[in-house]
Write a structure and sequence with these properties.
- This protein is mostly helical and about 200 residues long.
- The chain folds into two domains: about 70 residues, no CATH class; about 80 residues, no CATH class.
- Helices cover about 55% and strands about 0% of the residues.
- The chain is built from eleven helices and no strands.
- The radius of gyration is 33 Å and the shape is extended.
- It starts with 17 loop residues before the first helix and ends with a helix.
- It holds the Pfam family Nop16.
C-alpha cells in the first residue's frame, strides 16, 4: 500500500504584497556617495562600474597580503642557486587606465580635504578646566593640588585636558570672550610663561 504524504495546505496570504517584496529582494540598494552616484551606469554591473572608476571591487585582490612562507622559499632558492634568479614565466599584469579616473581623483581629494572639528568637551569638564584656568592660570602643578581635583589627576593629565580645551575654537573662544581676553593685547611675559608651562615635562 502506498503511503500518502501529509502536505501542509498552502494558504494565500492577502496581507503580503509579493510584487513589493520581490522588488525589495532584487534591489541592490542606493549609492550614498554623490560622486559615485553621478558616474554610475545602471546598464553595467557593479564590478564593471567600479573598475571603470578606478576603484576596487575586492580590496583583497588589489592589495595582496604578503606571504611570508613564499618569500622565505624564494630567498632559499636564491641561496641554493648561488645568487642566480630563476627566470619565471609569469606575465606582468598590465593595468588598464580607468575610463572614469576623475571619480577616484575626486574621492581622494574629498578624503584629503580638511574637515570641521566637531569634538566638544562635556559641560562638566569645561567648567572644571575654566575654574582651574581662572584660579591658577597655567600653573599645572598647583592645579594638581586643588581640592576640586577629585580624580587626583596628575599635572600632566590636567595639562593635556587644557591643551584639548584650547584646541576647540568654539569652546575656548567662548571662554576668552566671557573673560574679555579676545580684545586684550597679549602680554609677552604671560605668553612666555604659558609656553614654558606647556613645553615643560
Amino acid at each position: 500500500m502506498k503511503v500518502k504524504k501529509q502536505h501542509r495546505k498552502k494558504k494565500f496570504l492577502h496581507k503580503l504584497n509579493r510584487k513589493r517584496m520581490n522588488r525589495k529582494q532584487r534591489n541592490t540598494g542606493t549609492v550614498p556617495c554623490e560622486i559615485i552616484k553621478d558616474a554610475w551606469d545602471h546598464k553595467k554591473s557593479t564590478y564593471k562600474n567600479l573598475t571603470d572608476m578606478g576603484l576596487a571591487n575586492d580590496p583583497n585582490k588589489i592589495i595582496k597580503i604578503p606571504n611570508f612562507k613564499q618569500e622565505k622559499i624564494k630567498q632559499a632558492k636564491v641561496i641554493v642557486n648561488k645568487g642566480e634568479v630563476e627566470n619565471t614565466d609569469e606575465e606582468e599584469t598590465i593595468t588598464a587606465v580607468p575610463i572614469k579616473k576623475e571619480v577616484a581623483e575626486k574621492l581622494e581629494k574629498e578624503a584629503k580635504a580638511p574637515r570641521e572639528r566637531r569634538f566638544m568637551l562635556p559641560k562638566g569638564q569645561v567648567e572644571f578646566i575654566t575654574y582651574l584656568l581662572d584660579k591658577y592660570g597655567h600653573d599645572y602643578k598647583a592645579m594638581e593640588k586643588d581640592r576640586k581635583n577629585y580624580y587626583q589627576e596628575t599635572w600632566k593629565q590636567l595639562r593635556a585636558k587644557i591643551k584639548t580645551f584650547m584646541g576647540i575654537p568654539k569652546q575656548y573662544g567662548e571662554y576668552l570672550q566671557a573673560r574679555g581676553l579676545l580684545d586684550k593685547e597679549p602680554d609677552e611675559e604671560e605668553l612666555k610663561k604659558q609656553a614654558k608651562a606647556l613645553v615643560e615635562d
